[in-house]
Structures are given as structure tokens and as C-alpha cells.
């Protein structure tokens, strides 16, 4: 059925201007992979060209690949870690969660004086809480290499879908604990 679809370039061109060509499906597939799988070679080529101009996308192997997703799979050349892709945006085990939060808190405190200053910068609409969108956008601006969605869920202790200042201060406590460990380890 996907092969019978005709590409509407006037629509696709508008979408490519506003969409993230590096966004992955829950299965870890990129838009160019989906186009390849539907045998839309022209669409896949255009999406890959857009990826080459994208800050994050230009570093992905799919951006420069001329092989279709089906050809890569047949040759065993897939770069997708399906186990990692399945974890994107999901809550983690306690150990994974702590490590991820420590990594994020270290990055955060390297950029901001303290958690309150970071919270003010993250809170775009100044309503006193951070939405998932505010948090994710700010984490991406910090160039956090981990999964902002999973960090958000780990910090959202009351599970209400937003982060309060009190919840956000968890990052300050983690950072302070880490610094104390380093300090006591160097003595």
C-alpha cells in the first residue's frame, strides 16, 4: 500500500522546513528509513539531503548512505540499536536513572550557577513549573547527549507531567553529593 502513494512535493517541502528529520519512531527508524521502506527513493534522497544540512543529522550514518533500509537489513548493516531505541522516553531502572540524572546534573551545573538559576532559564513561560516541552528544548540547547524525556520522567517525582522547583532541585542535590564524593576521594 505504501508503494502506491504519490509524493506531494509541495506538501513535503513545507513539512521538511518545520519537521525534525532526525526524529526517530519508537522502533528507532528515521524518516529516511521509512521512505526507503516504502520504496520512495526520491523522498528518501530529499530527506537525506535535509539531514546533511541539519546540525545533528549530518553526523548520522543514514544521512550519507545511498543504501535503502531494506538493502542495509539484507546486508546486516543496520545501525539501529533496537534495545536502546525501545528505552527512549521510558522510565529507567533505579541504577540507570541515577547515572542518567548525575550526568545531566553535571552538565547543568557546568552551565548554571545553581539549580534555581537553571530552572529560571528553563521556565520559558515563567509559570513556576517546567513542561516536558520546556525541559526537552532546554536540555537539547545544553547539548545533552542522553534522553531528555527519560530525565524529565525521573525528575517528575509526583508524576503530574511537569517539574516543580522542588523536584528540579534534585539535580542540585545530586551534583552536590557528587562533588562531596570527589572531594573526600581526593583527600
From TrEMBL:
Q: Which GO terms describe its molecular function?
A: calcium ion binding
Name of protein: EF-hand domain-containing protein
InterPro entries, A to Z: EF-hand-dom_pair, EF_Hand_1_Ca_BS, EF_hand_dom
Keyword annotations for this protein, in alphabetical order, are: Calcium
Which superkingdom heads the taxonomic lineage of this protein's source? Answer: Eukaryota
Asked whether the UniProt record includes Cytoplasm among its keywords, one would answer no
Q: Which Pfam families would you find in this protein's record?
A: EF-hand_5 (PF13202), EF-hand_8 (PF13833)
Where would I find the EF-hand domain in this sequence?
A: 110-145
Amino acid at each position: 500500500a505504501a508503494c502506491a502513494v504519490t509524493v506531494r512535493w509541495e506538501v513535503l517541502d513545507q513539512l521538511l522546513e518545520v519537521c525534525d528529520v532526525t526524529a526517530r519512531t519508537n522502533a528507532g527508524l528515521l524518516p529516511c528509513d521509512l521512505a526507503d521502506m516504502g520504496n520512495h527513493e526520491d523522498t528518501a534522497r530529499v530527506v537525506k539531503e535535509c539531514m546533511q544540512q541539519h546540525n545533528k543529522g549530518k553526523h548520522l550514518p543514514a544521512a550519507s548512505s545511498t543504501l535503502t533500509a531494506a538493502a542495509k537489513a539484507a546486508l546486516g548493516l543496520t545501525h539501529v540499536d533496537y534495545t536502546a531505541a525501545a528505552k527512549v522516553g521510558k522510565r529507567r531502572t533505579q541504577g540507570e536513572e541515577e547515572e542518567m540524572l548525575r550526568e545531566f546534573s553535571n552538565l547543568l551545573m557546568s552551565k548554571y550557577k545553581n539549580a534555581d538559576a537553571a530552572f529560571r532559564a528553563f521556565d520559558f513561560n515563567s509559570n513556576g513549573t517546567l513542561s516536558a516541552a520546556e525541559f526537552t528544548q532546554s536540555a537539547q540547547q545544553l547539548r545533552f547527549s542522553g534522553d531528555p524525556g527519560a530525565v524529565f520522567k525521573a525528575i517528575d517525582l509526583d508524576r503530574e507531567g511537569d517539574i516543580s522547583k522542588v523536584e528540579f532541585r534534585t539535580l542540585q542535590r545530586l551534583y552536590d553529593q557528587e562533588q562531596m564524593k570527589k572531594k573526600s576521594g581526593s583527600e
